[in-house]
Write a structure and sequence with these properties.
This protein has 330 residues and is an alpha/beta fold. Helices cover 35% and strands 14% of the residues.
Length: 330
């Protein structure tokens, strides 16, 4: 499994990471989680991404049981903080950051995480307070590095500008053939500041696998057919988008790869990307997806992909929809 350096850190992460968002927060049985995690580890994936809010700690607990069987220095573990873990437990205040990192470490059965990420921006907490608390977490040894997810450019700049604070080494945006907004501002801003991209939803919630056909019900057992795992897929399930995605099939066939591999290879063509996070309910999905790292897409193939998808692609950066409110200390 090929590896890339994560921003300005000394972490070398596998180009394909295993995530636990929907699949391991209640959508998949524990024996399946264990099988997929073992398959990923044995195939050379060393990067595992979770969050405290996934299943209200369920994903962290599952990986705490499974990953603790392996040497701690043989894998890179990332988790996140921000979303509610209780009526009064949410956000990025100093109190919450310290409380939630301790709770995450307990569930993960480890003394540190390699990467601690702000799951979203907190407009209700002064940015200085957030960055200073994150710095304290790093200095205490509970996290080696910090990252962010879905912050606007102005929010990223504000975090970087806090004097004496530890710097971010990663950004986790949604990014795929169908969702390209981060290319405009996030990618160049982060590259200038030693921040790599860790992409979530590189297969557009599974739509880019080609398994969903226009005018037809989702296959039984698929994410779109699951009440537990279909929450974010609706944006990609219009017949217009599904018809465009099917035009990618002959391109993949010509290259001798699957549509999933084509979509992941498209992500990994960017040097700003350190890793693409996949979800998996079966070990064979992991084996298929890691082969994408060996596929090189020519300019002609990239042009054919753009022609096939046409106006189904979202190019604007939707992070701006969350506003740019930044609270500072008085």
């Amino acid at each position: 499994m090929k590896k890339r350096r994560l921003g300005s850190s000394d972490l070398q992460v596998s180009e394909i990471a295993l995530g636990s968002w929907l699949t391991y927060s209640g959508g998949v049985a524990e024996d399946q989680i264990a099988a997929c995690t073992r398959a990923a580890y044995e195939a050379g994936i060393n990067f595992f991404d979770t969050a405290n809010v996934y299943g209200q700690g369920a994903s962290e607990e599952a990986w705490g049981k499974i990953l603790s069987a392996y040497p701690r220095d043989s894998y890179i573990l990332a988790t996140k903080v921000f979303f509610p873990m209780g009526e009064h437990d949410k956000g990025l205040s100093a109190q919450q950051i310290h409380k939630q990192i301790d709770a995450s470490l307990k569930r993960l059965k480890t003394t540190y995480v390699d990467l601690y990420q702000c799951h979203r921006f907190d407009p209700d907490t002064p940015i200085e307070e957030t960055m200073e608390a994150l710095s304290e977490v790093v200095k205490s040894g509970k996290a080696r590095y910090i990252g962010l997810s879905e912050w606007t450019p102005d929010q990223i700049r504000a975090g970087l500008a806090v004097p004496g604070a530890v710097k971010f080494v990663s950004s986790q945006p949604q990014y795929s053939m169908l969702w390209r907004g981060p290319e405009q501002e996030i990618f160049p801003l982060c590259a200038q500041n030693g921040i790599s991209q860790i992409v979530w939803s590189p297969l557009a919630q599974g739509v880019l696998t080609g398994k969903y056909l226009p005018g037809q019900q989702p296959p039984a057992g698929s994410r779109a057919a699951s009440t537990d795992m279909s929450g974010f897929i609706d944006r990609f399930m219009s017949d217009h988008i599904l018809e465009a995605v099917q035009k990618l099939r002959p391109i993949a066939d010509e290259l001798g790869c699957t549509m999933s591999q084509l979509a992941l290879a498209w992500i990994l063509r960017r040097s700003e990307v350190a890793s693409a996070i996949i979800g998996a309910t079966r070990p064979e999905q992991i084996i298929e997806n890691i082969a994408a790292a060996d596929i090189v897409l020519s300019p002609d193939v990239l042009a054919a992909i753009d022609d096939a998808l046409g106006d189904a692609v979202v190019y604007e950066d939707r992070t701006s929809e969350r506003g740019t409110a930044i609270k500072h200390r008085d």
